[in-house]
């Protein structure tokens, strides 16, 4: 079953839901980070050369590139809510497996072990591990007990159609009600023709067709949501 | 209760909490109480099968509050002091088996190849390309002006950067490669042992020992020990995968990784010290070789003594 959703029960007895992020967005995020890192390394080099520090400048540059190579992800992940700039660009975030913010030790570990995931070349082992493990975890994620999830942006609130509510017929069970409410809620997402077609399926029950049927169902949906 | 009434009743609270959580780092008044409130509302909404939109919004809100509540504590200074004084050597001793094994994997090839290259002058050329051997020879030639490397104060800084990037990178890789059932760590340990042993044996054979040993003995105390320790940390990871005991491999790996990291923090510190010594002390030319040897021997005694004895006896409170 291809299901990326990932549920954790909190001490408050709530099931928190998150979506684990797969290899493709993570590779893209990595590419963005690699670009930024390269940019910083080059900028550092230009800056040091302009400052006229030749041999000593190279020393500082080596220290800088060492720090970027190993600690760039760690600093961002811990201080910026699990998001390096690349991850932020793709709406990803690293969290501990219990969905709490990632800690220093976990972030350090997963980024030190990046080297093992990189082997034999181009993150070969990491990709295999991501494919085989439940929540797309590379080896570093497993050892540090972290997951990369989608940090959902705040979606726009759905608007409801502006219609008079209709009294629903008797005998609608919970599932029917949910189906009608979903249809009402998604009035912007599906084409009008498709919605009319869907509403038309209920013609034997409602006795209406086309725009009328759709309007009737939307009216019921509004009623079920609480409009009067 | 209809969803619309439910939403109308709580909307103001949600908006307020959403706004408060959006500001980074600010304190949210009454956060725990409000978090529990949203948790309860999410549970109610789920139970009443309200629409997907509302459930997702509440889930998002709960998650944001959860992240805020369980956010990390700032690092504490006392924890670091405790780690350096006792935590690190204890972590090393706790993995004594892996440490001895890593030391052997590093030291034995070094001794064998060192002796081999000392006795047979062609052996070194089967291991290293001739240009590299020539570079080493010119670096430690007693007739040369500068034992170690040719440089002034400027190039000291350059070499510092080089040692940081190169040596610490090697240590980190040696550790990480342990994840491949320990094979990677073993490879790096043996490889470095062979390399260092061959160079030392060859230089001794051609009589450059009088410049070579005073140069390497000081930082070697930290550097060689740290390489062996990072290998030991890597072997811990491999051991957990090969023989997880009564746990699943993932669980065993997690436990092993936690204790291995306790070794790696200290290894990192040791390598920074080694880079400092190697760049600014070992290369100093004004000091007599005898003084350097004596200082180096003292450093070895201090490092080994520290790892063997620091943090013994006192309260066993784990950091």
Oligomer: heterodimer
Task: Please give the largest β-sheet of chain A.
Answer: 2 strands, antiparallel
Strand content of chain A: 5-15%
Q: What is the residue-mean pLDDT of chain A, rounded to a whole number?
A: 86
Helix content of chain B: over 70%
Rg calculated over all Cα atoms of chain B: 28 Å
| H and E order of chain B | HHHHHHHHHHHH
Percent of residues of chain B in beta strands? under 5%
- For the record, the count of structural domains of chain B works out to 2
Number of strands of chain A: 4
Round the mean pLDDT of chain B to the nearest integer and report it: 86
Could you give the distance between the termini of chain A?
Answer: 42 Å
Q: Please, how many helices of chain B?
A: 12
Helix count of chain A equals 11
Q: How are the strands of the largest sheet of chain A arranged?
A: 1-2
- Biggest interface found: A-B, 57 and 58 residues
Tell me the radius of gyration of chain A. Answer: 26 Å
Low-pLDDT segments, ≥5 res of chain A: none
InterPro entries (chain A): RDD
Pfam family, one (chain A): RDD
Transmembrane segments (chain A): 34-52
Domain RDD (chain A): 21-144
